[in-house]
Write a structure and sequence with these properties.
The chain has four helices and no strands. It is mainly α and 113 residues long. The relative contact order is 0.17.
Length: 113
């Protein structure tokens, strides 16, 4: 779900407070990208879906949010095929993974403090 080695590297480089700020920026960005994804899916804009999913995949990978990165990769793959039902299903899976990922990060940072 999360890659603790990635988080340890962020904490080592930025400290717990800096890492917390990085994570706050990640979640703000994720909210924006999810809005872009939802709007693009609704509009049938597969190029927009792919671009937003690609950006989310990259940012999730950078902070160690492996499950979110995997879900975003699925969306990106389905967008290439213009498969709206599969994109919608993968978006639902990604949205379902958000809460568990946030909990995992919160738990990890609580232990790191």
């Amino acid at each position: 779900m999360i890659e603790t080695e990635q988080l340890d590297g962020i904490i080592a480089a930025a400290g717990v407070d800096g890492a917390s700020e990085i994570m706050a920026a990640f979640w703000r960005s994720t909210d924006d990208l999810l809005l872009e994804l939802r709007n693009a899916v609704e509009a049938g804009d597969f190029a927009g879906v792919g671009a937003a999913a690609h950006a989310l995949k990259g940012s999730a990978s950078n902070v160690g949010a492996a499950l979110l990165a995997d879900n975003a990769r699925d969306i990106e793959d389905h967008a290439r095929n213009s498969d709206k039902p599969a994109v919608a299903s993968a978006l639902t899976a990604l949205e379902g993974a958000l809460a568990s990922t946030q909990t995992a990060f919160s738990t990890y940072f609580a232990k790191a403090s």
